[in-house]
Each structure stands twice: as C-alpha cells, then as structure tokens.
Amino acid sequence: MGRRINIQGKDGSFGAYVADGKSRGGPAIVVIQEIFGVNKVMRDIADNLAEQGYTAVCPDLFWRIEPGIDITDQTDAEWEKAFSYFKTFNVDKGVEDIASTIAWTRAQGHSKVGAVGYCLGGLLAFLANTRTDADASVSYYGVGIDNYLGEAGRAHKPSLLHIAEEDGFVSKDSQARMKAGLTAPTFQLYSYPGRDHAFAREGGKHFHRDDALRANQRTMDFFARGLS
C-alpha cells in the first residue's frame, strides 16, 4: 500500500502516489499516468514496481485541470471525461511536472531514476528522455510521439518503446515514422502484431495477457540494465 505526498513544481504543488521500494537509496521509477488520472491501474503498477524493489512515484499531472482525477475505462461517460482532460492537458507543463517529480525523487536519496508511461504517459516518457535528466525511459503505446521526432537527437539515455501494431490511436504511418526516426543505440522498439492500444492495461478491452507479460518482462530487464 502506497502513500500520498505533495511535490513542489514550478507552478505550484501537486499530489503524487508513492510506493516505497526495498531501499531508500535504491533505483526509482516515475510512473506516468494515462488519461484516466492516478487511478487504481496506475497505483497497482506502482505497487508492483515496489514489490520488485523500485520506489515508484506516480504524479498527478492533471492537477491544473482538476486535482485528484481517478476514473476508469469502463463506461462511456468516463471515456468522455478522459478525452476532455486529454484535450485540455498541456504537454509542456506535464513534462515540467515530471522533471519536478524526478528532482523530488532524487532528493529522497535515489540517484537513479527512470520513467515509464502509458498512452499519453507514453508520449511523456519519451519527452522525459529528451527534456529531463531521467536515466532511462519506457513508453507503452505512446500517442503522438511521431509529432516530436525532431527531439530524438536530444535523447542521450536509453529508451524502450512498446508499439501496438493495430493501435487505434497511432496510425501505421505514424508507427513507420517512429521506427525510422528512433534508432539504436539510444532507442529500442518492440512491435506487437495484432495488438491494439492499451494491450497491457489489465481489465481493459484490449488487454492481452501474453503480450502484456512479454512487454512487462522486457521493461523490467531494461530497467535492470539502465538503472543499475
């Protein structure tokens, strides 16, 4: 069970969910939310990372819109709310908040800090690599990354991206541009044939257990190398 804390950012204070790992000075991971806020799915991811030894910090990036958003993907009304938050959200400010979260985490004694994000958070995890001092980043089915490929040259830390080949929010053309523009050694991309958006969201419409397990194992192997 995690705890709630507040982080001071450039524009004000915002909340975050923290699941403590085994060691105060051990590696930490910033968990970057989907469009549903810091909900049970995100908290469960943070708790799972803590069980594997990482301190996980999940900041409330929608705080400027409405603090404490916590909805699911189970009803049409919630989807409508989620998309309204997505349209209102300022990506640049979100990345600033992630930078503040990383700084807070380092101040707690964690010298190595990675980032993992899903959906909108997948884009933000990519930008955490190009705009912050994160030590490693993982993006799950990030939406809109192809619009920021011009920043790829600013990424100097390892980055892993999971791409759903049948993603309803990321076209085949966008996927092709990502594969062409994000190359080794900085970027490592895995594609999942037949998978739709959010295939790793347990309980979601497109959840695929085998590929979720495969992607999650690749993520943990990646962090074991990048945050050691």
CATH architecture: 3-Layer(aba) Sandwich
Low-confidence sequence ranges: none
What CATH calls the topology is: Rossmann fold
Summarize the helix and strand pattern as letters. Answer: EEEHEHHEHEEHEH
Number-wise, the strands total 8
Q: Distance N terminus to C terminus?
A: 25 Å
Count up the domains. Answer: 1
- Determine the CATH superfamily: Alpha/Beta hydrolase fold, catalytic domain
Description:
The protein has 228 residues and is α/β, with parallel strands linked by helices. It has one domain: Alpha/Beta hydrolase fold, catalytic domain (Rossmann fold), CATH 3.40.50.1820. The protein is 36% helix and 20% strand. Strand 1 (3-8) and strand 2 form a beta hairpin. The protein is globular.
Briefly characterize the structure.
The protein has 228 residues and is an alpha/beta fold. The protein contains six helices and eight strands. The chain is globular.
Keywords:
Rossmann fold; eight-stranded mixed β-sheet; alpha/beta; 6 helices; globular; 228 residues
